[in-house]
Amino acid sequence: MRRLLLLLALPVSVTAQPPARAAATTAAPAPPTAIRAIREADLRRDLFAMASPAMRGREGGTLDEMKASIWVAEQYARIGLEPAGDDGTWFQWFDITRTRVAVSASRASIGGRMLTIFGDIIPLGVAPVEATGPVLWLADPADTTIDLRGRIVATLLRAPAPGSIRQYSYPGASRYAAAAVAGALARLTRRGAAAVLLVADQVVDDDFAALAVQRARGDYDVDHATPRAAGGSDRVAPVPGLGVGPTPAYMVRAAMAATLQQAPEVALSVRLERFDVPSVNVIGRLRGTDPVLREEYVLYSSHQDANGVRLLVPGDSVLAGADDNASVSVAQFAAARAFVAQRPKRSVLFVHHGAEERGLLGSRYHSAHPVVPLAQIVTVLNGDMIGRNNPDTAALLGVQPPHRVSAELVTMALQANAQTGRFVVDTLWDRPTHPEGWYFRSDHLPYARLGIPALMYTTNLHDDYHTAGDLPERIDYAKLTRMAQWMYLTGWYVANAPKRPAVDAGFKLER
Ligand SMILES: [Zn+2]
After folding, report:
1. What is the three-class DSSP state of 238?
2. In Å, what is the CA distance from 383 to each residue of 11, 82, 216, 278, 329?
3. How far is the CA of 357 from the centre of ligand 1 (A)?
4. Do 166 and 296 fall within a single domain?
5. How many domains, the chain?
6. What is the pTM of this model?
7. Which of 50, 247, 267, 377 is the most exposed place for a label (fewest CB within 10 A)?
8. What is the pLDDT of residues 111-166, one digit of tens each?
9. Within a domain: residue 504?
């Protein structure tokens, strides 16, 4: 009852609302009967399959992602969509460019003792270095009177300021390490040192192997794609050269402190390697019924990849990605079943973007090489993690400036919520001030950057995010069903609306 009062009582437009809530104003048509094709049992069956250990975490740019992509295509073939990828297939191929430290071609020694790269010493960035000389030990890295130019400096890693540790995103120790390293480098880079050696504190030393696995992955990018950041280039940046960019930094074990304080001779020769690996977007289409409007498309967006197989933690090393993002992928299968059962006027594209976890690579590529002209894509409904947290609340990103592309689309989405999930819609995560910057971390972003009305549905982050704990057993399937119905009905409203959602005048993202 309380929730119903809340839904009806709340004022009209998003901005006028008390903070962090949004609700529909006018009632919209009841859902079509086809919505019954969205069934909890199907969602559960498909999710357990997609997030099963056999899928090995579906890592972008690997055979596991390929296997998962073929499985996704098989679902759509069974549901009755038509393939919309390259050359009449389900697949749009693109290359991922990886740049990382070349372990076999790199050398590091301290006091004449050879170190193993990513074993004893962790390169913290993807940067080459050629440096030798006696270490300069810094008891106080904040002492700017010491001339560091051209020196290899070493210092103890200091605990990060509590406020600088991100609330979510990755296990606690790696969030701690990321904040501590950022704090240390903020004090030391731009002082002309040739290299920085950070001596791990107890927290980072205990988590040394996990940090090594994470940093060994290197950088990922995709060429000829919508830029990562506003004003960025659509080309992959050249391989970083010697002495270009921030000072190269390395993490060594806590036990190295005593040795480094003796100012031993250090030799660092770190080389990089770059190579391409294939990835793929999976794309299915359902044609609309109206001879004119069927040339316009509603695009549903998910990502089929997850984070693969990582470090063994309590008996499991597969990052199954049940919530992130199998939850949305299976919701899209369910929506496709409903649309096949009752076709709308406009056409619908169902896209599973590859390598999202590697930097939105698939969506950056497809938005730059769309399978239908970009101008005909009237809306992008993206979902990321829709199966967890409080059963009564959900978040919708892109509902308020500066993230709102289209107020008309927001209205349709809130009306659809009132007819389906009836969630209390949290808009806090949609604020530019929110520390997680969640709006900038999923596949709707490249499309929104190009001015296409776009929304992101999510039930937000949780402690299992990007860990082996993101398992199908922990999904709230009743909630997932309501989220799937909500996403479906929003698309149904757009696909049958007399006119396409208008883009707000003055829409501009803050970064
Ligand atoms: Zn995701």
Report:
1. coil
2. 26, 22, 29, 24, 9
3. 7
4. no
5. 2
6. 0.91
7. 267
8. 999 999 999 999 999 999 999 999 999 998 888 899 999 999 999 999 998 888 77
9. no
Whole-number Å distance, alpha carbon 443 to ligand 1 midpoint, is 8
| Residue 316 CA to ligand 1 centre (angstroms) | 20
Judge contact between 366 and 427, C-beta under 8 A.
no
Reference 274, options 95, 108, 92; nearest CA is 95
Distance 9 CA to ligand 1 centre (A): 33
Same domain, 467 and 377: yes
| Domain presence at residue 501 | no
Distance in Å, CA 261 to ligand 1 centroid? 44
> What pLDDT, in 10s, does the model give residues 216-274?
999 999 999 999 888 888 899 988 888 777 889 999 999 999 999 999 999 999 999 99
Tell me the pLDDT tens digit for each residue of 339-348. 999 999 999 9
Same domain, 251 and 315: no
> In the numeric block, which tokens belong to residue 473?
């057993």
Buried b (16+ CB within 10 A) or exposed e, 296-320: bbbbbbbbbbbbbbbeeeeeeebbb
Q: Are residues 293 and 249 in the same domain?
A: no
Q: Could you tell me the distance, in angstroms and rounded to a whole number, from the CA of residue 110 to the centre of ligand 1? A: 41
DSSP bridge partners of 262: none
Rounded CA-CA distance 51/58 in Å is: 9
**Residues 400 and 260 occupy one common structural domain:** no
> What is the spatial distance between Cα 129 and Cα 194, in angstroms, rounded to a whole number?
8
Query: The domain containing residue 402 runs over which residues?
Result: 2-98+276-496
Whole-number Å distance between alpha carbons of 446 and 443: 7
- Can you tell me the distance from the alpha carbon of 272 to that of 89, in angstroms, rounded to the nearest whole number? 36
Tell whether 510 is covered by a domain.
no
Residues, CB-to-ion distance under 5 Å, ligand 1: 324-325, 384
> Distance, CA 328 to ligand 1 centroid (Å)?
9
Does residue 317 sit in the same domain as residue 422? Answer: yes
**Contact call for residues 329 and 302 (beta carbons, < 8 A):** yes
426 by Cβ neighbours in 10 Å (0-12 / 13-18 / 19+) ranks as buried
Dist. CA 363–CA 445, nearest whole Å: 8
- Determine the distance separating the centroid of ligand 1 and the alpha carbon of 306, expressed in angstroms: 7
Q: Give 159-199 as a DSSP string.
A: PPPGGGS-SSSS-HHHHHHHHHHHHHHHHHTTS--SEEEEE
CATH number at residue 127: 3.50.30.30
Round to whole Å and give the CA distance between 191 and 181: 16
Of the candidates 265, 277, 334, 309, the one whose C-alpha atom is nearest the C-alpha of residue 111 is 265
**Same-domain check for residues 421 and 301:** yes
Give the chain's largest Cα–Cα span.
Answer: 79
CATH number at residue 336: 3.40.630.10
Q: How far is the CA of 353 from the centre of ligand 1 (A)?
A: 10
